[in-house]
Amino acid sequence: MLKGRIHSLETFGTVDGPGIRFVLFMQGCLLKCQYCHNPDTWSLTDGKEMTLEEVLSEIEPYLSYYRSSGGGLTVSGGEATLQAPFVTELFREVKKRWNLHTTLDTNGYNEGDKIRELLDVTDLVMLDLKHIDDEKHIKLTGKSNERMLNMAKWLSDHNRNMWIRHVYVPGIHDDQQDLLKLGRFIGGLNAVEKFEILPYHQMGVFKWQELGWEYELEGVPSPTSDEIERANRLIEEGRQQVVAATK
User: Model-level pTM?
Assistant: First the structure.
């Protein structure tokens, strides 16, 4: 019987896609983001094993809220695509039973062709682009950004709806050329319905402390509204450069 390793779940998510959503957080992630606010999701062997039916029975009581708000099911993590077979079956089943909207929240560290079955039953991909500069990406997450950028291109080439999100950390994401480059990259993609900057926050620091791990961004402040505004302006400038060039 197919089981998934689940970190946690939320029945009234409002920031994880359109409408009110059931959010399932999968256990396991191969990235080690310095700002991660759920480092307890990293381990591939922790979490609670749940069957498909167990997850479906958690969703069912709240269906009317998801339907009336134009919401649905979001699977996040950790990194949801590491358990692609389970998530694929879950998405298939909620569509078959309830015609629910499905959102995949992913860091893109996978390959489109490998998880195509999952992407075929996904209505919206929320893709986190951690850093456009590869060296800085490696320092921030422990991995190259090559797979993430390739995933964005795959989604674009196959015209899959996506929202792109970018966590902004002062001192890590403020380089003007990086922001313009990110904008140009996004400008070259199809089917990007939305782009948003998520301001870095320190809400997960206590989890690092509980795990006895050193928090590398100790003392780094959240960005000011001016910093976020500047970043949005530069990203949009880069995006417009590509849009103008293709007209």
Answer: 0.96
